[in-house]
Structures are given as C-alpha cells and as structure tokens.
Amino acid sequence: MVSVSKLVTAALVAVSAAASSSKRGAAYNDASLVRTLAKSKSGGMSWSYNWDMKKNGNMPSGVEFVPMLWGTDSVDDWDSAVKTALKDGSKHILGFNEPDNASQANIGASKAATLYKKYITPYGDRAKLVSPAITSSTQSGEGLSWFKTFMSDCKSCNISAMAVHWYGGSFAQLESYMKEAIETASKYDIDEVWLTEFALDTDTSGISNESTAKTFLEKSIKWMDSHPKVGRYAYFYTANNFLLTSGSVNALGKVYVS
Question: Which segments constitute the Asl1-like glycosyl hydrolase catalytic domain (predicted)?
C-alpha cells in the first residue's frame, strides 16, 4: 500500500514538473526584469537568453539560462563561458544570431556550419544543441533558404532544435511561417522549432497598440502551447515599453506569463 506521504511527494513532483514545463522564455538584456516578470506568475517561464554566452545576472529559480554564440566576434571567450553556463545548469546551447542578416551575425551558411561544428557540436554530449536563429526573410540566401544550405553542410552537427525569428503583420502570418519552418526542420530529422524572437512588426521599438499586441500574443501563445513541434518561444522582449512599463509588469506582460 502506498503511503500518504509518498502520494503527497508524487503530487508535488507532478506540480513542479508542470510548472517548469512552460515553453515560454524571456529574451532580455536586463536580468532584473526577468526576475520581475517571473515574480508575477510562478512557473510562467522556464528559460531565458540574452543573445550572449553569459547571463549577466541571476535568473529566477526554475528558469534555465541558455547561452548563445552570437557570431564570429564571440569565439575567443566561448569555451570558458559555455563551460560555466553548463556547470551552472544550462541544458541547451543556441547557435548564431541571424547569420542570414547582414546587420546581425552575417555569416555565410557554409562558414557557419564549419564554425558550428568547431565551437558548438563538441558540447553535444552535455547539452541539446539549437541551430543558428534565422530570420523569416524570403529572399534567396536568407531565412529558410540559408538554413537549408547550412544543414546540407552540417549533417553531423548533432542539432536537436531549429531556431527562428519572426516579425510580421498578423497571427495568421506567424502561424503560416511556423508551419513552414516545422516542415523544413522535419526534413533534417529535427523534431522541434524554437521561436526565439517574435512580435508584430509595428512593435519592434516598443508596443504601439496594447490592445492589438495583446490579441496577437494571446492567439500566438495558445497556438504554440498546443503545437507539439514548437519546443520553446520568446516574445520580443523582456524590457520596458514591451512586457514591462517603468520596471513593472504591464498588461501585455501579464498575458505573456499567464
């Protein structure tokens, strides 16, 4: 016969697992704002990243920091930083930030594959590896086109998840893009897609219309939470004028962690 104490323990474990299973993450520059956002709803987020290899501040309990090798300028400090992150509990590693974008990491697909195999793949026995985060551009040599070339040269990279960014005009456009990204990932035996930046294109410098942004976010969260191939996502972003206002969680932030 199972004791009451064991049943209680099992229940607590189940609750803890459910609380930490959120796909939602915090894309941030200021770690203190992640803590503020997390306090507003326990278990509302499970992970965070800051486009960097170092977390630059303490994360809330239950929120995994995921280090990123942003681009070629970051490789000198990479090994030391990623080892520290793994020691501190990181279970995933993110690849380059928009290597298909000339104003971001700006790395050709073949070169990116070579760098990925050199700097990230060696940690595949200690963490799940996530691809470089690509844009949603439909131009040749960018977006999914870039990713396909990258993967053709990175077959032995041990990638577990595909990372993408999306900015556009509606939830319908986001859904369409994500379905295409998921289909693309499946061709390389990648079972999940991470949307590590997303927002309406009118909100990239701050929320322009709270009601519109709220409706978009509610629809996006509902769809991504229910889709088995969406591994994780992070709204752009955990900062003032976005999910917070003057250091406090605003209405949009409450929707995000609800």
Answer: 25-256
